[in-house]
Recover the amino acids of this structure.
């Protein structure tokens, strides 16, 4: 079994994504002790119904409580949906946050809020926590520091294209080679790729003084050089090849897309990728909420416990922060289409791994699941601040926008101290 990756301190270009990938440079401007070397964020895109998953209210009115039944879990006094039996059996390995509340009721704004920890603003486009990770803790020069499987709207904000995610655009299929577009040689020899990169460097040098280079062009230049470095790296190609994973790990994961995406995420973390976001789409169940949720819950129930077990077997869980969340919850009232609509006033998140104190619940909702019910007020700001803190990044640090405006990374979020082992 390979040992967990220990980062180098080389001051080299790092690879990210522009449409598919970008680039980044080392930027540890305020080193803090970290509890997590890497983060895996599972984005439950569309917003799962809190009432039909991890915050059930069996005593709520019939028009609100839904058709799923609660089951007991390894957390004393905590019940979850009957379609999450595997998660219920290992819920003591997680910390469950309930009653996360905000006011962004549309997907783009709610996604941005979740990804950045800042309320969307017309004045500034904030960088996502993935892009901040890429800037502050980029990892190896020949590996992407920030990967989206298969895609994500998690963006770099004012940091620019150099700090975007590497997007796989596809997920592995069991028993088939997984070749990521942008990492294959494309029929060229290694020497041809080296020669192309040398030519680009020469042209950049010759034209450097001809005119002012825009930040976008500069980001693309970084991308080109770093892309060549990654293509030349057999380690990068190997990291994405789930076919080379140990059979004992592979058999843990279901064969559907989410299962294989999380198999890839665990492998990428093992090979030095710092931040992976895996998108699990389909939770926007305005129609047939219970049919849609039953399928999605089955996928999540197989894949999420497998991820935790695989990271444990690899010796990586203590240094890998795992976070699962949607952008909001869904309405308590069931609509005329047997669906539930957007409900940003209440949702949940699961944390596990690096720096997390497992086996606890934090926050809650009232007896109908309408609103938070406790003194523990939770918002996306707090999730982002806590994630950055676990990575050793000060969420109150300021960046300068291209226009010179100072912007706090997460201005209003607090680190959820009771969640963390250092709290």
């Amino acid at each position: 079994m390979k040992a967990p990756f220990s980062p180098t301190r080389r001051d080299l270009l790092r690879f990210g994504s522009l449409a598919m990938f970008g680039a980044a440079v080392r930027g540890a401007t305020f080193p803090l002790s970290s509890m997590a070397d890497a983060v895996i964020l599972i984005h439950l895109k569309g917003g799962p119904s809190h009432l039909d998953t991890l915050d059930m209210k069996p005593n709520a009115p019939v028009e609100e409580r839904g058709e799923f039944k609660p089951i007991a879990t390894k957390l004393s006094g905590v019940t979850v949906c009957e379609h999450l039996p595997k998660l219920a059996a290992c819920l003591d390995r997680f910390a469950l946050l309930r009653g996360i509340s905000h006011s962004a009721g549309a997907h783009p704004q709610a996604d941005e809020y979740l990804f950045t920890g800042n309320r969307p603003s017309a004045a500034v486009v904030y960088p996502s926590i993935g892009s901040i990770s890429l800037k502050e803790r980029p990892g190896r020069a020949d590996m992407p520091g920030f990967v989206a499987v298969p895609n994500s709207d998690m963006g770099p904000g004012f940091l620019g294209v150099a700090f975007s995610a590497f997007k796989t655009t596809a997920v592995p299929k069991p028993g088939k080679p997984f070749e990521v577009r942008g990492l294959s040689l494309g029929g060229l020899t290694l020497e041809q790729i080296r020669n192309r990169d040398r030519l680009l460097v020469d042209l950049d040098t010759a034209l450097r003084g001809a005119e002012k280079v825009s930040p976008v062009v500069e980001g693309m230049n970084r991308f080109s050089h770093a892309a060549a470095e990654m293509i030349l790296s057999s380690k990068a190609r190997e990291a994405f090849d789930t076919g080379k994973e140990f059979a004992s790990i592979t058999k843990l994961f279901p064969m559907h897309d989410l299962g294989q995406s999380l198999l890839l995420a665990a492998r990428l973390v093992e090979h030095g990728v710092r931040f992976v976001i895996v998108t699990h789409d389909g939770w926007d169940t305005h129609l047939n909420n219970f049919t849609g949720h039953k399928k999605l819950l089955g996928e999540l129930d197989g894949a999420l416990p497998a991820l935790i077990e695989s990271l444990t077997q690899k010796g990586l869980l203590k240094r890998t922060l795992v976070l699962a969340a949607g952008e909001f919850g869904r309405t308590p009232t069931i609509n005329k289409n047997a669906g539930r609509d957007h409900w940003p006033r209440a949702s949940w998140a699961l944390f596990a791994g690096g720096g997390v104190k497992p086996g606890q619940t934090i926050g809650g909702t009232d007896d109908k699941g309408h609103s938070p019910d406790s003194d523990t007020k939770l918002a996306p700001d707090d999730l982002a601040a806590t994630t950055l803190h676990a990575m050793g990044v000060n969420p109150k640090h300021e960046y300068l926008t291209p226009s010179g405006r100072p912007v706090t990374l997460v201005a209003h979020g607090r680190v959820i101290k009771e969640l963390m082992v250092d709290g």
